Amino acid sequence: MPGPVRRFYRSRGFALVLGGLGRALITSGTLILLFVAYQLWGTNLRTDQAQDRLDDEFAAQLDAAAEAAETTTTSSTTLPGDGTVPPTPPPTTPASTAPAVAPPVEGNVVGSISIPKIGVREFFFVQGVSVSQLKRGAGHYPETPLPGQAGNAAIAGHRTTYGAPFHNIDDVVPGDEVMVTTLQGTFRYLVSETSIVKPSEVSVLEDKGDNRLTLTACHPKFSARERIIVSAQLVGNPVPRLPAQGAVSAPTDRRAVFEDIDGETASRWPVVLWGLACAAIWLACWLVATLVRQRVDRRSRARHVQWLPYLVGIVPFGICLFLFFENFSLLLPASY
């Protein structure tokens, strides 16, 4: 080995470079592990909060629909003369009819889904399958009928992130029950088949000539290589479509939505800004800790105070890091 190279290896500069590289690799590895933890558990926090809000919104919609139905029933059974109600009750509503409520718009809660076999209990789903909607829960494909209606109603959901409503969807077998509640009522489906398809196989969302519910999710877990499709048949008669239901949802590119189930363009600036905020907080903590370490005798009992800046900064750093991860995840093609 040449002399200059040997002297560089033994120099303080090489030690500093090697130490800096080691710290950079450790920091990078730690951040990657933290991001994985955020994807698996941190995203669930946002979804849990969103589910609570969707629960309240759906309850309010149910109350409004009940009041509207009661008002309609009262006005239709009241005589125009003295305002008295006839003693005979109104005719029973046929099973194939349902309340004439307003159709859901993009982002609005549609209802809840329950799959007892895999422990899914009243998980709320919204109208739309964009990344912003699937972060809140499962999503109804706007181009398909609503659950309970005639045709092929389709719902998408995650398997490992954002509440993971379909985490164990591969465990359902023919005959298992799927219950869906919307403003039009509660509907019972029985699973008929499960299949694995390529992301380009958008035909699973098309009308099959029967009344079914199609559940879609990425497959296998932690991958978006394929799609798992669970089909279930409606038990009983379907309810009619809502007035102006087709006019609420604008036509979408079904292939683009299905192939990249939660893909959409997100801004990079929030990622940059929150990343800089994290770096600034950690740099400030390091500088303060360095100053404290220079002023404290290593043999002093007060030497532990050099860690105090890190303890103080860990909370704002954690908040900024969480927001950095949240915005960074929007740039990824899928969250599985």
Give a description of the structure.
- It is built from seven helices and eight strands.
- With 336 residues, it is of the alpha+beta class.
- The chain has three domains: 3-49; 56-71 and 98-259, Sortase (Sortase, Chain: A); 269-329.
- It has an eight-stranded mixed barrel with strand order 1-2-3-4-7-8-6-5.
- A hairpin with a 4-residue loop joins strand 1 (109-115) and strand 2.
- Residues 77-81 and 83-96 have low confidence and may be disordered.
Structural class: alpha+beta
CATH class category label of the largest domain: Mainly Beta
The strand order across the widest sheet is 1-2-3-4-7-8-6-5
CATH superfamily of the largest domain, called what?
Answer: Sortase
What is the residue-averaged pLDDT? 83
The CATH architecture name of the largest domain reads Beta Barrel
Number of E strands? 8
Order of helices and strands: HHEEHEEEEEEHHHH
Low-confidence stretches: 77-81, 83-96
Radius of gyration: 28 Å
> Quick one: biggest sheet?
8 strands, mixed, barrel
User: Strand portion, in percent?
Assistant: 15-25%
CATH topology of the largest domain: Sortase, Chain: A
Give the number of helices.
Answer: 7
* Helical residues, percent: 40-55%
Q: Globular, elongated, flat, extended or rod-shaped: what is the shape?
A: elongated
- State the end-to-end CA separation: 51 Å
- Count of separate structural domains: 3
